[in-house]
Specification:
Two copies of one chain form a homodimer. The first copy, chain A, is of the alpha+beta class. Chain A has four helices and three strands. Chain A binds a DNA duplex (30 and 30 nucleotides) through helix 1, helix 2, helix 3 and strand 3.
DNA sequence: TTCTTATACGTAGAATATCAAGGTATGGTT
DNA sequence: AACCATACCTTGATATTCTACGTATAAGAA
């Protein structure tokens, strides 16, 4: 529900964070995000897949097809070492930007 | 110094916040941002002006030329009512997204 | 005087990104 | 059979960023 700019800023760190907790696939990542955000973030698949492809192209995640018997094919993504580093950087960036905005907005530490 | 995605997400709320504290002009906004962020954010002018123009086109800010004697011309921007509302929305969005990431990352309230 | 730096605004264009809309296919349920 | 959920993908319109460039004046240094 957030604005475009903010949406764009959160897709990458959110995906990397979810993958840092274990391999996962596109469709399920969408469900995870919805659950984690308490329904606030409802990603469409058409929005997610291009981002996953880009992250893979950039070397932050890797993929493998897994086909279970009597199940659908799934493309599982894993975070790479480069991806872990990237996540760390994104995290630091986010925290310092939040710190700046927090000061500007005079937010209490609890928010 | 932050990533492109995060930069994009902060320009709008930062500009609106600065203007909500009083009218200001492009060149000085860049200095303000640098000061506020302790040098972390160093915006270029070529990056800021298009954003200001867009915000004005969208009705969130308004502008007026001011020429002081023995001084340069300056284009002062003011936040509009619509801009104040927009800032409020952006603020809420930011706070709720931060809350989601904070939980995911297990950050302490002080961060 | 002339050069440089700081102030102050702007645009063009390449590169990048978003996101809705549409497409394919299988499994399970009614 | 019909329908929904699962699961992946691409295209194309639109928007956005940001580098690089251009214009101009004032102040201070060489």
């Amino acid at each position: 529900m957030a604005s475009k700019g903010l949406m764009a800023a959160t897709t990458k760190p959110l995906i990397l964070t979810i993958l840092s907790e274990g391999k996962n696939y596109g469709y399920n990542i969408i469900q995870q995000v919805k659950k984690i955000s308490d329904g606030q973030l409802q990603w469409s698949d058409g929005m997610l897949y291009p981002v996953l492809h880009r992250l893979e192209k950039d070397g932050f995640i890797s993929s493998e097809w897994i086909i279970t018997t009597s199940d659908r094919r799934r493309k599982y993504y894993s975070i790479t070492e480069a991806g872990k580093k990237e996540l760390h950087v994104e995290r630091e960036d986010w925290i310092s930007l939040h710190s700046i905005l927090k000061n500007l907005w005079g937010l209490k530490p609890t928010t």
